Amino acid sequence: MKEKLEKIRLEALGQLEAADADIEQIKIKYLGKKGELTAVLRGMGALSAEERPIVGQLANEVRAAIEAAIAEKAKEAQAKALEQKLKAEKLDVTMPGTPAPVGHIHPLTQVQRELEDIFIGMGFSIVEGPEVELDYYNFQALNIPENHPARDTQDTFYIGENVLLRSQTSPVQVRTMEHQKPPIRIISPGRVYRSDALDATHSPLVHQQEGLDVDKGSTMGDLKGTLEIFAKKLFGESTRIRFRPHHFPFTEPSAEVDVSCFVCGGKGCRLCKGEGWIEILGAGMVHPFVLSNCGIDPEEYSGFAFGLGIERITMTKYGIDDIRLFYENDERFLEQF
Ligand code: DAH
């Protein structure tokens, strides 16, 4: 019986040494209910009283040895499995990643920033004004009294009798002159509102940029020079500008300003509709009434002002024929800028 036990020990341990040993199978084969070791133990009843404890002890030793070897083998297998898993799931940090789609600046903002750069380069600084504005700043102080016909073309959204969404950036002129002494040289970009239905050329919300220069001896020549530099910087060095007489209540004299078409150079083409010129802004010399409203003596100071539509400039510059494209956020449109 002792030999039998030794044989079982040798065999079992030998089998467990094999690299691909099947632990469960070995457990069943030797230690299971119908296992070889169990069979030996069952036969112990036939032994003599002296032999029984000796064989019993040996049997226990063999069982303990096999169990220990099985535990050891299981631990090894677990470690190996973990190692393989780590190897298989290893991260290669040098692999190029999946790029996350990154957006870019909206064409209107791009043009607005371009305008800001150009005017900052000429000594203007940027100021902002409220979009919810008082009737006084949006109209009255700008020489547009109640019932003035200019109000019809700038019909906007009213919040109260005297509170409205500004229809132009011109009120920022008044707000600036009220608390700043000349020399003043500012631009003011921002949103403005009109009660227009949305179509290819109208939107209830558009962007404007105001400009204002007040100083001793500021002249129409200064206005022309400033706008000419601006037009050349924005549309190209060969661009010319043209002043056409116009009327704005807050400037005198007033003008509409055109640039020579940068596509055809002035010969006439599809962009300028055969005109050779494209209207880009309104301008003029600040009306004495406006200056005195703000506590600036028109005998001592003069100034020029201009206002442009950022949508219009952007549409002209890029040949965009529908204003709605700016607000729909269709990537196929936005990606082109
Ligand atoms: N505020 C005018 C508009 O919205 C544009 C304008 C014209 C602004 C002449 C000016 C200016 O400062 O001098 O139609």
Q: What features would you describe in this structure?
A:
With 337 residues, the protein is an alpha+beta fold. The protein has 2 domains: 2-88; 107-334, Bira Bifunctional Protein, Domain 2 (BirA Bifunctional Protein, domain 2, 2-Layer Sandwich), CATH 3.30.930.10. Helices cover 42% and strands 19% of the residues. The chain has 13 helices and 9 strands. The strands form 2 sheets. The chain has a 7-stranded mixed beta sheet, sandwiched between helices. The mean pLDDT is 93. The chain binds 3,4-dihydroxyphenylalanine.
Write a short abstract of this structure:
The protein is an alpha+beta fold.
- The CATH topology name of the largest domain reads BirA Bifunctional Protein, domain 2
Rounded to an integer in angstroms, the radius of gyration calculated over CA atoms is 45 Å
Tell me the β content.
15-25%
Structure class:
alpha+beta
User: Given this structure, which CATH class of the largest domain is correct?
Assistant: Alpha Beta
Biggest sheet: strand arrangement: 1-4-5-9-8-7-6
- Count all strands and give the number: 9
Bound ligands, each once? 3,4-dihydroxyphenylalanine
SSE ordering = HHHHHEEHHEHEEHEEEHEHHH
Query: Which architecture of the largest domain does the CATH hierarchy give at level 2?
Result: 2-Layer Sandwich
Percent of residues in helices:
40-55%
- The named CATH superfamily of the largest domain: Bira Bifunctional Protein, Domain 2
Spatial separation of the terminal alpha carbons: 92 Å
Mean pLDDT: 93
What global shape is seen? rod-shaped
Largest sheet: 7 strands, mixed
DSSP helical segment count: 13
Low-pLDDT stretches = none
What is the domain tally? 2
